[in-house]
Protein 1
Amino acid sequence: MRRVLDATAFFVEMPLEGELFTSPLVVDELADARSRCRFEAFSAAGLQVIAPGRDSIQRVEEVSQKSGDAGVLSAADVEVLALAIEISAEVVSDDFAIQNVAHHLGIPVRPLQQRRAKKRTWRFLCPGCGRYSDRPGECPVCGAVPKRTIK
């Protein structure tokens, strides 16, 4: 089975089998010696570092906007999901936002230490005026910063 690894896979001591992939931005996130050591071990075992194409990145960004997760996904998270689209792979991550967008994209997910996230669509509630929005950002009515809530 093909698996795309989020940074979580390099922080946790869990055995992983199959064809393993990750993105360059995930590798950049690996700052401590332990995660770098695990990266080197996976690399020696055949881990491939591949940058996804613009089309799949754009698809992830569009779906994350619709699900309400765009504001919490990092560029590395987007790359992981885009790479999984391109190579038809399972995503290995404990990040709930990654898992949620993966569910919306139809990508299988394997959490390592956390429970599996449920598929959710978020909306944003302004604490100032009580207005709901489907997009993050300043409230157009009162200027307050909305809070993310389940739709």
Protein 2
Amino acid sequence: MDVTENINTCWGWIGIEAVEVVEENDFGNLLIRDSSSRFWRLCPEELECELVAADQQQLNKLLNDEEFLIDWYMSALVEVAKKTLGSLSEGRKYCLAIPGRLGGEYDISNIKTIALNELISFSGNLARQIKDLPPGAKVKLNVAK
């Protein structure tokens, strides 16, 4: 499945209609242009997909913001992941095994690799399932092989 099609299938419930992925990082964060030429950030480790720029001008400003860039590149975490897990092969990303929103730590013991489309599917489907839970609610994950 095409990445934008997968975004629309798994994250469309938030109102995004993805047309193009314009940037991606090693943790599968995506900057996505939608059908209205707005820009969204998909942040799978936090189970979030949020509008970050209303147009190209706002996106350009964001991409020059030092605080955003530090958060975007996640350089220290990527360096630790590369040393421990090795370089990423084509189509794979690092990820938090337990998402941060569910209490997962930003620590090498919680970092794995995954195919980008699997990460998009997992994060979008899980985010949809827990979207109405109050902060601090307990979540039990059942993993089937």
